[in-house]
# Entry
Amino acid sequence: MPDSDVRIGLVGYGFGGRYFHAPLIAGAHGCALAGVVTRSPDRRAEVAADHPGVPVFDSVAELVAAGVDAVTVCTPASTHTAVTDDLLQRGLPVVCDKPFALDAEAARGTVELAERLGVLLSVYQNRRWDSDLLTVRQVLDSGELGEVLRMESAFERWAPQPEPPAAGGGLLLDFGSHLVDQALLLFGPVQRVYAETHKAASGLEDDFVLLMQHGSGMGSHLSGAWRQGSPAPRFRVTGSAGSFVMTAPMDGQEEALVQGRTPAGEGEDWGREPEAAWGMLCRGDEVRPIASERGRWDVFYEQFARAVRGASAVPVDPWDAVATASVLDAARRSATERRSIDVPTLGR
# Structure
């Protein structure tokens, strides 16, 4: 690997590590996949097949001793705080997958630790670079919707497994971390939230609805479902001059990575959505397609590498994860108490 490459180690090689991180690290300009930590024989075999020559380690200590410049944490949600804090204390820049922490208190503790130590920390909110979200931002910036009144955003799917995997911490933390982060990115801080959730036999949420009131006056209606036979549109944004609707279920980058396609292999074609997936600007009977923006998950690690070299800010401010966790904490309390809950103002 070139001396200029940022050597990034990966802790965890489950679905997320294998498909959402390893190929994007390996293919990013200025990055190199320097090693993977996993004890599973099956996953060690997958690393060997997917990334020949990349060393595999039994522990974080072994990975660090081998020499890395930064580390990505993609372990089960319940371990994120402990693993991330340990790496920060070792002085290594960290990318932590979402959910960043199980609650806002833990999230704040990790971010404050990174600041005290002066070590870089970022959060893998890759869906900030989804094609559909980037297209929504373009439509909002165009002003064609007039005064924006409400956004409806859904991550709903019909999964073959009866329950979401325990490693994600439940659907409110898993899908909710993305949906809330996107809503905060588009419309700013949330003042109040009302939530309804359903729990599977395991006790983890497998279905949720959040109604959020932003300080700007906007309303965001978010939903996530693990086994929804008729998924809602991915986005519907309502304004005084029309609505923008995207009915395609999800951005296509996840499916592409699972199929073995990569940004490095596809170049400028990466992240392009077919015309059938484009959204529609609707004014009653007047309906006009809006070409989708390119999905750009590939930019995250390139920017993170520049941040490690001191040439850029991190791609996602970790304080954003504290804000997201605060909303999710309030949502869980709302679902339990069956009433709307004020979201604490984020102090830094």
About this structure: The chain has a mean pLDDT of 96. The first strand starts at residue 6 and ends at 11. Residues 6-126+300-314 form a domain with the Rossmann fold fold (CATH 3.40.50.720).
